Structures are given as C-alpha cells and as structure tokens.
Amino acid sequence: RFKRWPFAQKLAQSILSHSDSDSLVIGINGKWGEGKTSTLKFIETELKRDSRVICIWFNPWLFRDENQLLLHFFAELSNKLKKSLKSSKEIAGILLKYGSAVIPSLGVSMLDGTQAEVNIGKNLETLGENLSSVDISDLKKRLEKILKKEKKRIVILMDDIDRLDKIEIQNIFKLIKLTAEFPYTNYILTFDQEMVSAMLGE
Question: 2: exposed, middle or buried (C-beta count within 10 Å: 0-12, 13-18, 19+)?
C-alpha cells in the first residue's frame, strides 16, 4: 500500500548482486513512524530467499561500554556462522574460571601446629582468567579469517538507532568503522538522519 516492497526488493537485490568481498554500509533515513522497520523486514524477507545470506538483527541497546559492544557483536557473528572464536586454551580457562566457584578453601596444618587456609578456588579462578582472556584485536583477526573462508554474505540489520543516547550512537558508529573492512559483511541501519547527525556532531 505504501510502495515499500518494490524499494525493499531493489535494495536487497543490489546487496545480492554485490559480487566482491567488500563491505557495504547502507543507511535508511526517515522520521519516526514512516515505515523504516517495516522496510527493514521486507528487505530481510527478500534476502532470505538466497541461501548464501545470513541476516542478523543486532540490538545495541544493552551495551554502553565500547568493548562490551564489540565482544557481543563478534559473538553474534561467530554464533550465526556456527564457529567458535575461542582457542582450546581459552575454553579451558573459562572452565577453570567458573569451575572454581564449586571448589572450597582448604585448611592446612603447618609444621609448627598453626593453621593456614589455601583458597584453591580463588587460585584456579585467577589462572582461568589469565588463560581465558583474549585481546579484542585478536578476536577481530580470527573473525576476519572465518568470514573469508565461509564466503557467506552477512547482513547486519540495526533498527531505531536514533532512539539510542549520544554515547550509544557514537559507539555504534565506532563499531561499524572498526569492522567495515570485514569481508562479505553488510550493514543496514535505520535512523532519523537529523537526530543522529546532531548526536555525532561533536
């Protein structure tokens, strides 16, 4: 009725016809209530006709911290690709870290008769944290390698960006800037351009 479907089809087809591995970032601009979300759903419907495409609705609302946002984004991508970003060493670290919660402290009798407490769980937790920690740039490289190998067309759908606060909007655009060179990855963002531009003005 509102002529959204032909527009959505054309946009989806332009993404599908993008044959090389370069990333695309597309913005759909409109005021509140003008049908941006409906258009995004139409685009997703058309894209899903192609088995090579993976659509991901990414919700950035819960993550104010930039690192948390990136980690969550990387996790979402790897989950959809059914690949793990963590090495066996890091997985072992996670098991140690959370397994430490059920291991109690032990009382030890010293040679002079005094008692000492050894917190095995805490020591294991520290070891687990050291083993499970990984640099974000390393995760980024691992994910790039997976994307190059899989050659699936990933389409990230982000809706209502103009409803985020200033810091969240800035973090979203930083995330896109940092991951824009990911191969076979496309972003479709919906927002009120005037509102978002004002938030990014500084």
Answer: exposed
pLDDT tens-digit map of 84-143: 766 544 444 444 444 444 444 445 455 555 555 544 445 444 544 443 456 777 778 888
Q: At what angle do helices 136-150 and 66-80 cross, to 10 degrees?
A: 30
Q: What is the CA radius of gyration of the chain?
A: 23
Q: Is the pLDDT of residue 32 over 60?
A: yes
pTM of this prediction? 0.72
Q: What does each C-alpha distance from 17 to 8, 20, 47, 144, 195 come to in angstroms?
A: 14, 9, 11, 22, 31
Interior CA angle at 151 toward 70 and 39, to 5°?
Answer: 65
Residue whose pair of structure tokens reads 């192609």 in the numeric block: 50
Give the residue carrying structure tokens 């500084």.
202
Is 115 in a helix, a strand, or coil?
A: strand
Torsion over CA: 44, 46, 50, 52 (sign): negative
Q: What angle do CA 91, 96, 97 make, to 5 degrees?
A: 95
Sequence-separated (6 or more) residues with CB below 8 Å from residue 155: 15, 44, 47, 53, 54, 55, 56, 186, 187, 188
